[in-house]
Each structure stands twice: as structure tokens, then as C-alpha cells.
């Protein structure tokens, strides 16, 4: 009984099961519907091609990860800082939030041509795009979390002479941590998606650039290999965040 509980509690088990199900459905669909390789190649062929093209894939992955992580960190920090500023200045919130919603009502990728003109084809344009996508998510979630602090506890700290910043640091930020970590989790796939799509529209390197060039050359195995590498990298990135969540929000 104890062994079963430990097995079900392990986060590795659902991942392994999901991979097995994916393999079964993928390969089963190819066999059942006789799907030709140029429409949907087998996972074995994709993995084999990825191993033979490791050098190019790793170079592209490093470029994309650099852009995604750079924009992810920048957007998360800026979103959290802006949330704190808006919390401390409610009149400013009524002005800034409608503008932020209006900007993010348009898909982030739609701004890619402008960002490519402003920041060039290098990493800066993709970092800015990712920061825009991640920053709004962090802003909304962090602001909501900061407002969840108990009003009686806030008034108690004020009665002991605590200033607004100290209340934020000592009380509001710990209360907001579940919301902040949720925003960080949501930002993981968004950062990779935006970085890759931005590279497809214009870049010197990266998985998106590789996917675009391979599509032009009708090299579908390279396209699928790049997609596979991006998916694995996102899963590892997300797993690290889950571990951080368990360490930072241990009381939950």
C-alpha cells in the first residue's frame, strides 16, 4: 500500500504514461490509416534524424533558449515590478491596466514585424517579444496575488510603523507567491512559442529559423526534429519551475 502511494505521488509516473500513450497513438495512427512518411513520419525516424543532426539542433536550441530565457526573465521581473507600483498607486492602475489590456488584446506575434524593424533580426527583437508576452501574464497574476493579503494583517503592520514597501516585502509578496509561480508556469510555453515564431519571421539562428529553412527545402524530418527538441526543452524548463514552486511555496 505504501509503495503504491509513493508511486502515485511521483511526478515521473504521469510523464512516462503520457509519453507511452503518445507513442501508441502516434504509431498506431500511422499503421491504421497508412499515413505516408511525408505527411507524418514515425517517431523512431524523427528521433534517429535528431541524433544524426545533433550539432545543428543543439546550436539552434541554444540560440532559441537564450532568447526565450532572456525575455522570460526580463518580462517576469518587469511584470512583477509594475504590479507592485500599481498596487502602491491605485490611480495609476486605472490608467495603466486598460492600456496593458489593449496592447495584449492583439496576439504578441502580430508585433513581430515591428519589433524586427525596431530591434533588428538578432536576439534583441525576440527577447523583447517574449518579454511582452510574459510580462502581461506576470502583471495580471502578481497584481491579483498582491491584493489577496488579509486587510487586518496589513493594518496590524501599519500600526507597528511598517511602510508600504515593507508591507509588500514581508506580507503581500509571500501571499502572492502562488499567483506569481502560476504566472511563471504559464510563461514557459509562451516564451518558447513566441521566440520560435519570431525566429521564423526573421532571425540569424534558432529553432524557428531552422524550421523555416527546412520547410522551404521540404526537409520534414528536420522540421519534426526541431519541434521535438523544442518540446523536450520546454518540458525540462517546466519541470525546473515545478521544483522551484515546491521550494518557494512550500506552505501550499
Automatic annotation (TrEMBL):
It comes from the Bacteria. Residues 61-245 form the ABC transmembrane type-1 domain. The keyword Transport applies. It is found in: Cell membrane. The keyword Transmembrane helix applies. One of its GO terms (cellular component) is plasma membrane. Keywords: Cell membrane, Membrane, Transmembrane, Transmembrane helix, Transport. It is a multi-pass membrane protein. Gene3D superfamilies: MetI-like. The chain crosses the membrane at residues 12-33, 69-89, 101-121, 127-146, 192-212, 224-244. GO terms for biological process: transmembrane transport. Pfam families: BPD_transp_1. Belongs to the binding-protein-dependent transport system permease family. This is Putative aliphatic sulfonates transport permease protein SsuC. It comes from Variovorax paradoxus. The gene is ssuC9.
